[in-house]
Amino acid sequence: MIEKLNPVAYRLDLLVKLEHVHNVSHVSQLNKYIPGPDHANVIEPTEVTADLVYEECPIQILDCRIKQLCSKQIPLLKVLWTNHTSFEATLETEEEMKATYPHRFEVILHVLTKFIIFEDKTH
């Protein structure tokens, strides 16, 4: 913190790499930190381009479900992204994820194919 502007706003001293970021913070934007017994603050640096953009990639599929619309079923995936917690996971359509990240689904399809072949041989 560099200075207290008023009771609810503070000017922050940011890194030179973040000179394009607004450096005034309002206390309403803060969350209370409640430490857990096994919680450790591990800050991993995020590579940010000059225009303050960073790439997010899916890390894990946490859940899958089917959204039923009148006569249509839409497969949805709950996806965990880099630089986010599981609370911030998003629901994405399976079709969109397969189109955008086909390499993530090749392994899954390969395993499922082997499982189906194994099932057929047992009957």
First-to-last CA distance = 69 Å
**Order of strands across the widest beta sheet?**
1-2-3
**How much helix is in the residues?**
10-25%
Order of helices and strands: EEEEEEHH
Shape designation: elongated
Q: In total, how many beta strands?
A: 6
- Beta fraction: 25-35%
Q: What oligomeric state do these chains adopt?
A: single chain
Q: How would a textbook summarize the main sheet?
A: 3 strands, antiparallel
Instruction: Tell me the CATH topology of the largest domain.
Output: OB fold (Dihydrolipoamide Acetyltransferase, E2P)
CATH architecture of the largest domain: Beta Barrel
**Class from helix and strand fractions:** alpha+beta
Task: Describe the protein in words.
- This protein is 23% helix and 29% strand.
- The protein has 2 helices and 6 strands.
- The strands form 2 sheets. Strands 1-2-3 form a 3-stranded antiparallel β-sheet, with no helix packed on it.
